[in-house]
Amino acid sequence: MATIRDVATEAGLSTATVSRVMNNNGSVDVALVARVNEAIDRLGYRANPLGRALRRKRTPIWGFLASDIEAPFFASLLHGLEGQALINGKLLMLCNTGEDLERERQYIQTALDYQFGGLVIAAASMTATELDVLQDEMPVVLVDRVSAAYPDIDAVLVNNHLGAYSAVTHLLENGYRRIGLVAGPSDISTAHERRAGYCSALVDYGIGVTDDLVATGDFFAPSGYAAATALVTADQPADALFVANGQMAVGAYAAVRDLGLSIPDELGFATFDDDLWMTLVEPSITVVRQPAYELGEAAAHILLRREDVKDPEPGEVARHILEPELVVRASSCRGVGP
Amino acid sequence: MATIRDVATEAGLSTATVSRVMNNNGSVDVALVARVNEAIDRLGYRANPLGRALRRKRTPIWGFLASDIEAPFFASLLHGLEGQALINGKLLMLCNTGEDLERERQYIQTALDYQFGGLVIAAASMTATELDVLQDEMPVVLVDRVSAAYPDIDAVLVNNHLGAYSAVTHLLENGYRRIGLVAGPSDISTAHERRAGYCSALVDYGIGVTDDLVATGDFFAPSGYAAATALVTADQPADALFVANGQMAVGAYAAVRDLGLSIPDELGFATFDDDLWMTLVEPSITVVRQPAYELGEAAAHILLRREDVKDPEPGEVARHILEPELVVRASSCRGVGP
DNA sequence: TTCAATTGAGTAATCGATTACTCAGGAGGG
DNA sequence: CCCTCCTGAGTAATCGATTACTCAATTGAA
Fold this sequence. Notes:
Two copies of one chain form a homodimer. Chain A is α/β, with parallel strands linked by helices. Chain A has three domains: 4-47, Orthogonal Bundle (434 Repressor (Amino-terminal Domain)), CATH 1.10.260; 58-159 and 292-323, Response regulator (Rossmann fold); 160-290 and 326-332, Rossmann fold, CATH 3.40.50. Helices cover 45% and strands 16% of the residues of chain A. Chain A has a six-stranded parallel beta sheet, with helices on both faces. A six-stranded mixed beta sheet of chain A has the order 7-6-8-9-10-12, with helices on both faces. Chain A starts with a helix and ends in an 11-residue tail after the last strand. The mean pLDDT of chain A is 92. Chain A binds a DNA duplex through residues 3-5, 13-17, 19-20, 22-23, 25-29, 32, 47-57.
């Protein structure tokens, strides 16, 4: 492997000049720029990123912290982020926390050790780790979820309130009146906002919110099964279900199937998160689609802005809110059978 | 950030001694070991991995090269690999090639630049990149796919022949006789082997292979739709379909649904790759499940072995073949209707 | 008791880049 | 014509670790 020293020798110049040419720093005579570039080409030289990073105290690596990379939402977000990383010459390091706080802390420590160029966090609990400290060392962007404990950290979010509101309103307009909510853990901001959107829709339609029409799960499939079962087998059963995320929708759908209820006639069905299976089952499922891929891209853009110039200002916080999309399918439309 | 120099000063020793303690190298007096460790604790010192990597000419980073991280198979494989990386103190860098050769080459160059500790490749076309050269620089493991051009590279594979053989035999035993194959691109080893397994099963059952019962796709959903449509609408239509991967199965299933054919009575259905939706649709789909997560773990183990000792010997090639599992569900069993 | 071998620790070179500092030479003003 | 300022390039320090080399002290054998 050729080093910068080899290039300098080959070009008959000093390493300082070679470095200046490579980084477009300082002013170098055009003739020498050409000589350096020729030498680089002749030797097939590529700068060693480790030497560079050591000196610069910064690595062109971005970290991505997620609770579950196998979930389609995070996989898609990851994909969007990865595309932007590649374009901008960044490596992307993957951190799967699996909701484990200790792992999360460990990864953040690694990010500090390696002096990452940025960190995108879509993780479980942001209460325990001291993100403010981290933010002094590198740009940090929260995606999908925010924490009230960190109002001063950049974030890219989805308008969860609107998403839930539009889906529930849609169900109401299709004649469903007792709409059950399969909610997520209330300490996760996304779950909280979706619940609020659900409530607003009912109130705006002139229907009160009844506590026994809300069952709380943990965002995983089994809890969706349990919650849905409870809601539709109650004394006064729900006549429609709105599920707060895609994983619980899997469980909820299985529960409805096992109980032999027919969608959409006996029960309306809609959920947050789009997924392949929701178009393959009969009837297909109405969803609130999140722009996951775009979320990843937007997070990348914020990292780049924070890195290049100090814009937005250190004191200023960037909050991007992307709009979800209601995709109406058969499961929420009475009379539009299979 | 404390450096090794600070630790040396704090302990009243030289950096060499501190380094020896940290790496368990050379022999250091027990009393001094304790002094060094105390100093490390007092300062909260963590070694800078960049300085270390520069000197050692090796980074504890693994690269993972896949064509599509959003595909559940690769996502699961990635997850298995990531788990092992974490346990063994490695970082995992993600490389999504999207079947693009140029991207693939670019990423491999990056792996060389950063002096990665290993590379796991589950990528499209291994014909263009010179993997032999790469292998001299770092351990390389192929997963899922192999290339005849590189017989001397370690690989972790699935027994595709057996998987296809058992699924097709199962269909035959359930009375289906004209079994159509939705095949993958023949230049990809997995597709080739699955086709061979399909053929063997037919031959062993005393039925010849008919060319018009094989339609070739490209491993993506739309091609599955087209291939399935062709097979079941032919003059002499297939009475069952075996699909060579999960993505094409999505298309094939949609085609069957659009044509209004009833599974399993009018048409038997089975596919490679398990996925969530295959248990949610009516009837549920019989699949050949691949141990994707374990594939990732096995790849990690090979990297570790290559790194630690030279075992297997440089001349020796490690080939792990994992067994797939036939999961029988309703779609392949006549008379067991919805 | 003396000398070689071994042990334990320090000094300084090194990995490969960036950049503060230095300095020669040319331009421009007085 | 001389002095100052500016430009362009080189020298060498630096980032933070590892390790070859060196050397003093201790052990063991003759």
